[in-house]
């Protein structure tokens, strides 16, 4: 990925823990490294294929002057979200906010906070086998599309499948969607649990009936194993109700542990 650099942009703004900082204001120095694919811009000499660094610089100034934060950590987080929202070609960024001569009671040149943020591609499985199954799934897609810093890119067909694990229950309606998000895996998991709870999901019996089931299948090429979160999703390669819709929207995506594409895994499961 290519990079556009904005270095040492000076902005006078009002951020700080102390009331006088918010009232009087001071100079802040901002640097941003923007990861953007500028290949087409280089070949065509057209700005529409890149990001206007002058416009970005004004966006940085406007955001920091229109908002007041106690912490430069919060200012950096908010500014990063604003840049991702306004400029969809930015895939990742490094953002540093310096606060020269911060009032710490000691002589110093500057303090600063640096953050790195990026867009993530996530695949989420959806399932329901209680009540109005289609309505539950469609509502989940709508709520996922409205998560902060997120957008739904593709949704598979919803397919009817036999129950997995506990077989004495109604058939499921299953699907998979692809989304892009700024949320971390843990933040996303919390949002999925919230959406399930709003659909009156009850966790009584493992693999039992449920109004709505949302699972993170893949998060970029991350491998995560914690007490509450496993990515890639456990047993993904043995679940046709996941592989069939996932192969419909992302057959080329590679399982980060098994090193085989989703389409290969689906064919292997079919025998």
Automatic annotation (TrEMBL):
Catalysed reactions listed for this entry: 6-hydroxymethyl-7,8-dihydropterin + ATP = (7,8-dihydropterin-6-yl)methyl diphosphate + AMP + H(+); 7,8-dihydroneopterin = 6-hydroxymethyl-7,8-dihydropterin + glycolaldehyde
The protein's role, per its UniProt record: Catalyzes the conversion of 7,8-dihydroneopterin to 6-hydroxymethyl-7,8-dihydropterin.
Question: What is the protein name stated in its UniProt record?
Answer: Bifunctional folate synthesis protein
- Report the EC number(s), separated by commas if there are several: 4.1.2.25, 2.7.6.3
Q: Does the keyword Transmembrane apply?
A: no
Q: Name one Pfam family in it.
A: FolB
Report the residue ranges that make up the 7,8-dihydro-6-hydroxymethylpterin-pyrophosphokinase domain in this protein: 206-217
The record lists the lineage as: Bacteria, Bacillati, Bacillota, Clostridia, Lachnospirales
**Would I find Phosphoprotein among this entry's keywords?**
no
MF terms in GO: 2-amino-4-hydroxy-6-hydroxymethyldihydropteridine diphosphokinase activity
């Amino acid at each position: 990925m290519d990079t556009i650099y904005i270095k040492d942009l000076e902005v006078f703004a009002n951020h700080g823990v102390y009331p006088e900082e918010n009232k009087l204001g001071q100079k802040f120095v901002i640097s941003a490294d923007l990861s953007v694919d500028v290949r087409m811009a280089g070949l065509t000499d057209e700005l529409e294929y890149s990001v206007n660094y002058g416009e970005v610089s004004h966006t940085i100034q406007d955001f920091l002057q229109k908002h007041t934060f106690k912490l430069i950590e919060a200012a950096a987080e908010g500014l990063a979200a604003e840049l991702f929202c306004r400029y969809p070609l930015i895939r990742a960024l490094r953002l540093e906010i310096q606060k020269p001569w911060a009032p710490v009671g000691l002589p110093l040149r500057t303090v600063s906070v640096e953050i790195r943020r990026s867009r993530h591609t996530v695949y989420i499985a959806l399932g329901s086998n209680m009540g109005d199954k289609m309505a539950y799934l469609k509502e989940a897609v709508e709520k996922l599309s409205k998560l902060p810093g997120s957008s739904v890119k593709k949704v598979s067909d919803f397919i009817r499948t036999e129950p997995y694990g506990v077989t004495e229950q109604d058939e499921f309606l299953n699907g998979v969607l692809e989304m892009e998000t700024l949320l971390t895996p843990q933040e996303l998991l919390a949002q999925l649990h919230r959406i399930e709870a709003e659909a009156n999901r009850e966790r009584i019996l493992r693999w039992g009936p449920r109004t709505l089931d949302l699972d993170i299948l893949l998060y970029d090429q991350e491998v995560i194993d914690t007490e509450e979160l496993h990515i890639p999703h456990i047993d993904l390669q043995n679940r046709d109700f996941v592989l069939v819709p996932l192969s419909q929207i992302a057959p080329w995506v590679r399982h980060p542990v098994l090193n085989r594409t989703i389409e290969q895994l689906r064919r292997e499961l079919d025998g």
